[in-house]
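Reopening this ticket.

The earlier resolution said the output was attached, but the attachment link was broken on my side. Pasting everything inline this time so it's all in one place.
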Amino acid sequence: MTLLTKKRAHPTRRRQRPTAPRTPRHPLRAEALHGFGPWAGAALLLTCSVLLAGASARWQGGWAETGAELHNVLLIGVPLAAAIGCLQGGREHRRRTEELWRTAVRGPLARFLASALPVALWVAAGYVLTAAGALLATWPYARGDRPHLALLPADTVVLAASAVAGHVAGRLTAWRPMAPLLAIAGYVALGIPSATPDPGAGGQLNPAFPVPDAVDPVWWQPVAMAVWGAGLAGTAVLAYAARRRSTALLPLAAATVAGALLVHTGDGLWHENPLARRQVCDTSTTPQICVNARYGAVLPQVTEALAGVTGRLEGVRNLPVRFEDRAGAPHHDEAELPMLTPLGWHLVRGRLTDPERYAWEAVSALTRRGDCARTDARTERADDAVQNYLAPSPSQKYFDDLAARGDREARAGLKARRAARAELASMGDKERRAWLSAYFASTGRCDPKGVPSL
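Inline output:
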């Protein structure tokens, strides 16, 4: 009998499935996700947000003011972006790996873009996020108008171009203080034309030049400014890293054409916001109350603040037709309302800050004697009595107490003013309306003749 021994099978090993070779990550992706780029975007976002938050009372609640303030932060943002790019550009000097990078397969321009573009894109993203946050902060308090975003794309391009140009500066020198010095030089270069009353060409070519709130650019101005900034940055890049440096002439030519167009057009680059010439009026009062259409939704607050004034003027003749809220002097049949702009004084985040003071300033405009170098005592007493009756000054008690502690002349003047106030307040309604009608017939003139006495 033959013993057949079954050969024990060797335990089988797991067969590893063949894996596809990993595709190497693109250097742009690695730099964008794990390099200096996210920190650069966060730095610009934080800096611009702090600047905007510190001045929030000046822009929050007005679309035009928000757009102007977002543009004005470029005075800090552009030098900061250039310094950030310079830090990134000098990285190889600090690591002492520039010789190693020269042996890489990719050309110098490809290597430059792989390092510079992620930082520039993150800087642009930081600014866009800042703008989005500012617009969201304004939206609940806006009382008219519309978002003004015409400058936003060009400003974003200029910031990205500044980061790229700063990168070139960082590649050219290994000096560590270069980045902060570049930021200081950029701030001075942008700030001097901004502070000059008549900057001329420097203002038209300055991407951070302050923009008034009530103007908009012509449609092509942001395009020309973007070409101007990007063209200069492209010229620096190609002159530094391109195999054929003559190609730098192409962006230089584009920047030259755009700059010449900006300078030649001059003040024609801007036009007034159409809403700034319009008014929204409440015709149910006497005088009528009109506010600028940019803040049309504030009209109910203004009407309420002036309700005491218009109520006491009911039935009075010789009044101005309306309170107006436009730039420039009012017409002969109008009285000027206290200006709602600049934001941060009478109007903050869509609300009147001090309705009593606002009403007092509006009544002061009714006398229309601001251009008079001097008025006599009778006119002064009449003006004071009318202002006290319609809307007393919030500081009246303080000045009365000050006069009461003064010399004999000051005390006599206070006594006369108080007597005039009491006499006007004690009149009957019909008598007071007749006196006020005679009084408003004399306003707007410096001659005391015709001013009724008290």
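Reporter confirms the inline version is readable. Residues 1-7 have pLDDT under 50 and may be disordered. Residues 171 and 209 are 29 Å apart (CA to CA).
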